[in-house]
Structures are given as structure tokens and as C-alpha cells.
Design brief:
There is one protein chain. By secondary structure, the chain is of the alpha+beta class. The chain has a single domain, classed as Sulfite Oxidase, Chain A, domain 2, CATH 3.90.420.10. Helices cover about 25% and strands about 30% of the residues. The strands form 3 sheets. A 5-stranded mixed sheet has the order 2-1-11-5-6. It has a 4-stranded antiparallel sheet with strand order 3-4-8-9, with no helix packed on it. It is globular and about 45 Å long. InterPro entries: OxRdtase_Mopterin-bd_dom (IPR000572), OxRdtase_Mopterin-bd_sf (IPR036374).
Length: about 170
């Protein structure tokens, strides 16, 4: 092998490594207060510790969807807005089957990743046109479409409906 062939191989390998590293860290960095950190089996990160951090604007940029529903924890029907949980999982390149969702008070629940896609689960950020405060189950709330799918109104799904979310772990 000639010196130029070795140099070409080394250049090719280095460019491949740089390309892989760049694609693994393809998420922009948050510019505002971080309200969600996702870790675990994800392929797209934006931190040195292989997590994906999101501020409110980053989540809103994934698309805002409306879900009007009644929940067991509120009175009457409310209009919730935010990105679809499936969009959030897609943007981080979630590779696992289970999502552990953790709240500010350290409550956590596990849910199948497939729920996000099968039931159009919303990552609610706003309720009735206003950002959700911690007092009102914010800043983030895993919201199933209870009114559209009454079969979801059961204890298993209720336990997966975490509010005051701070982090998610893809397993």
C-alpha cells in the first residue's frame, strides 16, 4: 500500500467518524430554560453527556396540536396544546420500547413507546391557551385523548399520564 493510499484511507475514516459524530449531535442547543431532558437509547443529542435537552421554543417548533378532552384530574373539558409525543421521540431518534417519564416530585411511570404512536399522545404545554404552570400540572403533561378514546379511561393509562414532567428515559 502506498503512502498516498494510506493517507486516503485515514482521511476517509476520519471524515466518516466526524460525520457520525455530527449526526449524533444534530439537535440544536436550547437557548431558553431547559424544561425537558431525554436520555437513554436515543441517537440525536445536544449535550456532552448524550442527552437531549429542550426548552419551550424547541418543543413548540415540533408542531402544536390541539386536544380537547376531559381528564379525571380536571373539571369539565379543557383544550390542551403541545407537540405530539411521537414527534418528540422521533426527533431524538428513540430506539427503545419503553419510556420512563419522571415528574418534578420524583413520581415516575413507564409506558410503551408504542402508546405515543398508537393513541396520538400529546405532550401538553398549554391548557386553554395559557402555558401550564407547575400548579396546573405543567410545564409538561403526558396527555392521552380520553374523550376521543373512552377505552383509555382506566387505571393503567391514568398512571402513565404523568404531569409536571422534567425528564424521560428511553429504555
Amino acid at each position: 500500500m502506498t503512502k498516498s493510499s494510506v493517507l486516503a484511507c485515514v482521511t476517509y475514516i476520519l471524515s466518516a467518524v466526524i460525520s457520525i459524530t455530527a449526526s449524533a449531535a444534530s439537535l440544536p442547543e436550547p437557548t431558553g430554560k431547559v424544561i425537558l431532558t431525554i436520555s437513554g437509547q436515543i441517537t440525536h443529542t445536544n449535550t456532552d453527556n448524550n442527552t437531549a435537552e429542550f426548552d419551550r421554543e424547541m418543543l413548540l417548533s415540533l408542531g402544536v396540536f390541539d386536544v380537547e378532552t376531559v381528564t379525571p384530574w380536571t373539571e369539565g373539558s379543557d383544550l390542551y396544546q403541545g407537540p405530539m409525543l411521537s414527534s418528540v421521540l422521533q426527533v431524538v431518534g428513540a430506539m427503545g420500547d419503553t419510556l420512563k417519564v419522571s415528574a418534578l416530585n420524583d413520581y415516575s411511570a413507564k409506558m410503551p413507546v408504542s402508546d405515543a404512536f398508537d393513541y396520538d399522545v400529546l405532550l401538553a404545554m398549554d391548557m386553554n391557551g395559557k402555558p401550564m404552570s407547575i400548579r396546573d400540572k405543567g410545564p409538561l403533561f403526558v396527555l392521552y385523548p380520553f374523550s376521543d378514546m373512552p377505552e383509555l379511561n382506566n387505571e393503567i393509562i391514568h398512571n402513565r399520564s404523568v404531569w409536571q414532567i422534567k425528564a424521560m428515559l428511553v429504555e
